[in-house]
Amino acid sequence: MKVVAGRGPYFAQIPFHLLDDPEVDAEGIATYCALRRFTDFGSDKGCFASHKTLATVAGLSVRTLKRRLEWLRNNGWVDWDKTVGRSNHYAVNNSRYGVLDAKPHLGQPDLPPQATVAQGVGPADPLPRDSTRETSTKTSTPPAWVQTLGEAWIKIYGGIPSYGQIGKHLKPLVESQPFEVVEGHWGRYLAATEPRFASPARFAQTFGGWGVPEPVTPLLNLRWRCCNHPDREITSRYDNKPLCPECVEALP
Predict the structure, then answer these.
(1) Residue 148: is its pLDDT beyond 90?
(2) CB distance 10 to 56 below 8 Å
(3) What's domain 16-115's architecture?
(4) Where are the beta strands (DSSP E) in the chain?
(5) What is the distance between the alpha carbons of residues 38 and 34, in angstroms, rounded to a whole number?
(6) What is the pLDDT of residues 154-183, one digit of tens each?
(7) What's the burial of 75, exposed, middle or buried (CB within 10 Å: 0-12/13-18/19+)?
(8) What are phi and psi of 185, to 5 degrees?
(9) pTM of the full structure
(10) Domain ranges for the chain
């Protein structure tokens, strides 16, 4: 750790929930730390940073960094806006459960210098901070409806569902549809989808396809007329053509 006289030491804040997640690896934590390096301690404010800068700070290749950013985003820890002509604007969350309520609005102006990184290497000089001031971190538990849908995930797949992603992608559905309808569609989606392909975002995109299937009327007692002998009624077709047995035998 590099200590500058009168300015440190500084450190990154890593939530225990992220550290305890069995699915995260060291590269994922390094990526989160790299983003946290450019944000205020205890804050959900965002930061601007290029992939190259973050990869350098995290000690990863750009390709690996991008994959870990996607994992963090899919699990509710980060989000970002793409801005033409400059680096992505990242929102770094203190809790995956706090995505809906605690995540800042991306694109907010006038971020402080220590929370902003341009395309260069490293942050601007941070302002001195009061080490005696307590900083609270906002966390929250999932809403009741998110917990209910998460329990359905656990019942079918086991493991730990991504409550942040469920809340983020299914909230518009819950606000526009009766919850019983959303819950039924969600259950049918989970039952029909392999765990590795299950995604709250994909479910939201295909919501209309997971309703109660309408009963199919069996095609019984159908009759056709032979295309060569209209007076002959037949009950089956040959090569998708209505042909009587005599016509079938006459085929070359």
Answers:
(1) yes
(2) no
(3) Orthogonal Bundle (1.10)
(4) 47-49, 78-81, 88-92, 224-225, 233-234
(5) 7
(6) 999 988 888 888 999 999 999 999 999 999
(7) buried
(8) -60, -40
(9) 0.39
(10) 16-115, 144-210, 221-252
